[in-house]
Structures are given as structure tokens and as C-alpha cells.
Amino acid sequence: MKKFSFVALLVFAANFVMAQDLDEIKKYTLLGQVQKAKESVDKYMSVEKNAKKAEGWFYKGTIYNQVSKDTAKQHAESAALKSQAFDFLKKYRELDPKAELLTEQSNGPLFDIYVGYASELGIKAYTSKDIASAHEDFKKGLEVHDYIFTNNITGNNGFKFEALDTILVLYTAITAGELKKPDDAAVYYKKLADANVTGDQYIDTYQVLTEYYKTKKDDGAFSEILAKGRKFYPKNEEYWMAIETEQAIDGVAKPALFEKYEELLTRHPESYSLAYNLSLIHISEPTRL
Fold first, then answer.
1. C-beta of residue 261 within 8 angstroms of C-beta of residue 278
2. Radius of gyration of the chain measured on its C-alpha atoms
3. Predicted pLDDT at 241
């Protein structure tokens, strides 16, 4: 009986210490003393049995995200902390599928990490001309967005993400282009084109992709994107006609060049530029007349 009581006392003492540790973490968090909160949660999670429980991962994720907001930190350190925070919160949801601690906060920590990548880090890096960092931040923001959407996670008042974050995808494509990574840029522009996005800010989606597929000599993809560009941006017909002509006559020499222009004129009889260019070719080749 004494042995049982002693064992029970040890279990009680261990649970009491663990509760004290969590209370300390919560206290520092509430007081906004994020560095002390981080030290406390790191110490708590270094204990193997604590790392097997969900609650610690929740606090570690939320605290690391708060630490990442420290304006005194370099961009790379803030981005790394935010990435860890995201991983910790995913671990929490794995261990506690109900994720009650997150739902009590309307999943605010996850949405906050998304905003942190898109705005706090990404936009700030871009305006500072750190395009490489901005590109990585935007990509990470999309990763968080997709995780939230795929897992049907809701925010305040039942807010839900759309399947495609068009603005963030656009920023990711633009930064890839500025980094001279056309293949990467095409991946993100294609996401937008597949969704049939329109609006003045998205015209480059179709222009960049037509140039890309023309360079890659992917005639099928070129024709598909060209058709969408014409449909969504008819006022830009001069560009569409020019790029279609370039693609059609690329590497074609006379006399086959005449046939290519005549084929184009058959499809676009209203095109003044085609008729004009064909007339110039005829002038330069009087024997054909």
C-alpha cells in the first residue's frame, strides 16, 4: 500500500511539474515576453514525454511565430522561425485531429503565418529589392494557403480561402520572372491561365505564356494560350497578331514564307498588318508577281 502511494505521489508530482511548465509558458505568452516564452517552451519540449503530446506543439508553433515578428531579426532568421512555426502547428494537428486549441482561436495562428509570409516578409523583401527572398516567401505563403484550403480550415466568422490565391500566385510568377527563371514563372502563370483569370493586372499571364510556349516550340500550348489571350483581351489584338505571326514564320524561308502569310490572312482577313507585310514580301520578290 505504501509502495502504491509512493508511485501515485511520483505521478502526481510529475504532472504537477508539467502543469507548472505549461503555466509558465502561458504566462510569458500572455505577458508578451516572447523570448522567455520561447526558452520555456523549448525546455518543456526537450522532455521526450512532453514531445509526444499535442499541446506543447501548439504553444511552440504560436510562440515561434510571434518571435519571427521581431523587427530586429534579419529576414532569413524570421523566415526560418516562421517555417518552423508552421511545421509545429501541423504537428499539433497531427497529434490532435480536433485541434481544439486552434479552433478556439478561429485558427488564427495559421492564418497569421500565411499573412506573415505574404506581407510581413514577402512584400517587405520585394520593396527592398530582395527579389530572391520575396520569391521564396511568396512560395511559402502559397504552401500555407494550400494547406489551409486542403484541410478545410476556417477563420473568423467561417472565413475560407478560395482554391487559388490569384494575387499571391501572380507575385510568385512575377518574382520568378525577375529572377530569370522562366520555367518556374510559367508554372505559376499557367495556374492563373488554367483558372481563366482576367483583369488588367493579369494580362502578362497570357503574354508571358505565349512568349514562353513560342520559345519552347510547344505549338499546342501556344495556340491554347493565344486563344485565351484574344478572348479575354481583344483590345490587345495587335500584340496577339504579332506573336502569332512570329510563331508561324519562325525559321521559314522564301518561298514557303508566302504560303505562311497567306494562311494567316485566310484566318485573319481583316488584319492590315498581315496584308501590308505580305505586300512588302511581294515587292521584294518581283518574279513571283
1. yes
2. 29
3. 86
What is the separation of C-alpha 89 from the centre of its chain, rounded to a whole number of angstroms? Answer: 19
What is the C-alpha separation between 143 and 83, in angstroms, rounded? 10
Size (the chain), residues: 289
Reading phi first (left if > 0) and then psi (alpha if -120 to 50, else beta), residue 180 is in: left
Is the distance from CB of 37 to CB of 63 less than 8 angstroms? Answer: yes
Could you give the CA distance from residue 107 to residue 87 in angstroms, rounded to a whole number? 15
Helix, strand, coil in percent for the chain, rounding step 5: 80, 0, 20
Residue 189: all three cell numbers together: 502563370
The grid coordinates listed for 231 are: 478572348
Q: Which of 32, 194, 118, 278 is nearest to 202 (CA)?
A: 194
pLDDT in tens, 163-197: 999 999 999 999 999 999 999 999 999 999 999 99
Count of other CB atoms within 10 angstroms of residue 205: 28
Cβ atoms of 169 and 191 within 8 Å: the answer is yes
pTM of the model: 0.83
DSSP 8-state assignment for residue 119: I
How do residues 271-289 score in pLDDT, each as one tens digit? 656 655 655 555 555 544 4
pLDDT band at 152 (very low <50, low <70, confident <90, very high): very high
Residue 42 in contact with residue 59, Cβ under 8 Å?
A: no
The set of cell numbers assigned to 15 is: 504532472
DSSP code string of 17-72: HHHHHHHHHHHHHHTT-HHHHHHHHHHHHTSHHHHTSHHHHHHHHHHHHHHTT-TT
| Residue 43 near residue 87 (C-beta atoms within 8 A) | no
Question: Cα(96)–Cα(219) distance, rounded to whole angstroms?
Answer: 50
